[in-house]
Design a protein that fits this description.
The structure is a single chain. A 6-stranded mixed beta sheet has the order 2-3-1-4-5-6, with helices on both faces. It is globular and about 45 Å long. It starts with a strand and ends with a helix. Helix 4 links the parallel strand 5 and strand 6. It is about 40% helix and about 25% strand. It has one domain: Rossmann fold. The longest helix is centred in the middle third of the chain and has 17 residues.
């Protein structure tokens, strides 16, 4: 099964670092601005015990530039065919959570309702946190989605977040 995932969120929240951690299990401290979109792939296995089936997912991950003015022009091309969304905010910048709703709504405008995972990234920067798990959960409830505090740097909860989204996408496609 081929599934497309879009990562959305403001600039410098760690979208590229999350993809790099998930796909290659690597982290780089240097900030590299994404221009347009970067596409990565990873194979994921999803087991549906209720159906006694195992699904092999070819996950295509679109890391989308965090510049809304640019994305507005190309949203159809970026979001078309997406099966899931990972919406990322930076736990050290409160404003990035407020912007997430707009990003998810922009995707929904093209795809309709698809599974979403809300990620509060940079959980390793505890002394700089401006957001809590409670803040992230509040937004995730609006979308009936899972939420995670992640760290692309340490790898904390990154695999779990992507795996959970894969399971939600398979469930939506097979029920």
């Amino acid at each position: 099964m081929k599934l497309k995932v879009c990562l959305v969120g403001e600039r410098a929240v760690g979208k590229t670092s999350l993809v790099r951690r998930f796909v290659m299990d690597e982290f780089d401290d240097r900030y590299i601005r994404t221009l347009g979109t970067k596409v990565s792939k990873k194979n994921v296995k999803v087991v549906r015990s209720d159906q006694d089936k195992e699904y092999h997912i070819n996950m295509t991950i679109w890391d989308i530039m965090g510049e809304k003015s640019f994305t507005d022009l190309l949203q159809e091309a970026f979001f078309f065919g997406a099966n899931g969304v990972i919406a990322v905010c930076d736990l050290t910048r409160k404003r990035t959570l407020k912007e997430l709703k707009g990003w998810v709504e922009q995707v929904y405008g093209v795809t309709g309702e698809i599974p979403v995972a809300i990620l509060g990234n940079k959980s390793d920067l505890r002394s700089r946190k401006q957001l809590t798990k409670k803040d992230i959960v509040k937004l995730s409830k609006e979308y009936k989605s899972d939420s995670y505090l992640t760290s692309a740097k340490t790898g904390y909860a990154v695999e779990k977040a992507f795996q959970s989204l894969a399971e939600a996408m398979v469930e939506q496609r097979t029920t």
